[in-house]
Design brief:
Blueprint: H1 2-5, H2 7-10, H3 14-42, H4 56-83, H5 86-117, H6 126-145, H7 151-164, H8 167-177, H9 190-228
Helix pairs in contact: 3-9, 4-5, 4-7, 4-9, 5-6, 5-9, 6-7, 6-8
Length: 229
């Protein structure tokens, strides 16, 4: 009789979601392994910059992930302000974490590249400065949001998140709008473009998966709490 009682568990509606998540992350990790192999062995070493050019395969995908996450946090914060639904607060919080992690990678790889090309670990160029501001703003948002579970803090966080997003477009437009030592583009061979493309896909899939996973787990947690209540 006990063995029969497990049959409903094996056929719950959550199983397809669980299988889908595993398949998603398996594919994402596979693409990540491919990206690492391409960056390490397939993409040629750039003649003038040397090995340091390979940081671009981390730098640009991390920057794209930061933009995706900032946009997600912005949208989720607007949704929370409109609906007061806790799930949007948690999604925005998760997206803000991705912004902080991604911009830290952008800054670190940018410093490595800058030391090699400019002879300095840091320069107050508009793009670098706006990226640093973005990182600090979203790190501050995480502090504002803690501890999780207080509605007033959630609302304050959501409003500040919407405001903080205004810096995100400046990071990407500053090169064209303001004089900047930061290059707007780099010469890439077809092998380099392919490698960069795969790295971009991995970074965006990983970021989107983390944010979407938080959304799914938050909905399940809230639904379970409501059923128990």
């Amino acid at each position: 009789m006990r063995s029969a009682s497990f049959i409903p568990v094996l056929h719950t509606p959550h199983m397809p979601q669980s299988v889908g998540r595993r398949a998603y992350w398996a594919a994402t990790i596979g693409i990540g392994v491919l990206a690492l192999w391409l960056a390490s062995f397939y993409a040629p070493v750039e003649a003038s910059m040397g090995m340091v050019q390979k940081v671009v395969y981390l730098h640009i995908p991390a920057a794209a992930a930061a933009l995706l996450a900032a946009t997600s946090a912005f949208g989720a914060s607007l949704a929370y302000i409109w609906t007061r639904a806790r799930v949007w607060d948690r999604v925005s919080f998760a997206a803000s974490k991705v912004v902080v992690y991604s911009t830290l990678v952008v800054l670190a790889t940018g410093m490595v590249w800058g030391k090699s090309e400019w002879g300095s670990w840091w320069t107050w160029s508009p793009k670098l400065t706006f990226t640093l501001i973005l990182c600090v703003l979203y790190a501050a948002l995480l502090v504002i949001r803690l501890p999780v579970g207080r509605p007033r803090r959630a609302m304050a966080y959501a409003v500040c998140s919407v405001i903080a997003f205004l810096d995100a477009p400046l990071v990407y437009l500053s090169v064209n709008l303001l004089p900047d030592i930061h290059p707007n583009s780099l010469p890439l061979t077809s092998e380099m473009r392919l490698t960069l493309g795969v790295c971009l896909v991995f970074a965006l899939l990983a970021s989107a998966g983390f944010i979407a996973g938080t959304f799914g787990m938050s909905r399940e947690s809230i639904d379970a709490t409501e059923r128990l209540g």
